[in-house]
Amino acid sequence: MIREAIVTTRSLEGEPHIAPMGATVIEGGYLLQPFRPSRTLDNLARTRIAVVNFTDDVRIFASCVVGRRLNVDVRKATYIDCPRLADALSHDEITVERVEDDPQRPKFFCKTYHSEGHTRFEGMNRAKAAVLEAAVLVSRLNMLPDEKVDQEMAYLAIAVEKTAGPEELEAWGWMLEAVAQHRSRRAS
């Protein structure tokens, strides 16, 4: 099972980094597979710690994918020297146990060191799931044909139109802008 999460890491100098990532659940922890090149990969390789943050604020996922600056507060994790999202619903502090190198996506096998809940989960919202799926599409615009993107975005728009609140609408707008900008750059 893959859980969509926000993974926070830090550089050796202590600079926090926030990235959306699918964290594969494995016995005792997670398998993380960041793409090369990435700061998440560099930070994991150097510090061998991270935090898997669970949030329902899809703006964080969307802003990372489109490169939009969003004010996201972080604080020190409970036991490891790594940042976590201040407003996460819950978080898991993890340590890298083993690495399998790969030219495209190295595999970081991580053990859960500590898990902590922070706030009550208020339930599912289809628009949140739609924005998350749109963020995955946007992250792969260079790999997918326009027709596929258009078809998926049209289907996802149904959930957004029916169930979105202000945060989901804002993030959905960023996804639409990203698709339009990608096509505009490509046409130039």
UniProtKB/TrEMBL annotation:
It comes from the Bacteria. Residues 4-116, 125-177 form the DUF447 domain. InterPro entries: DUF447_C, DUF447_N, Split_barrel_FMN-bd. Pfam families: DUF447_C, DUF447_N. This is DUF447 family protein.
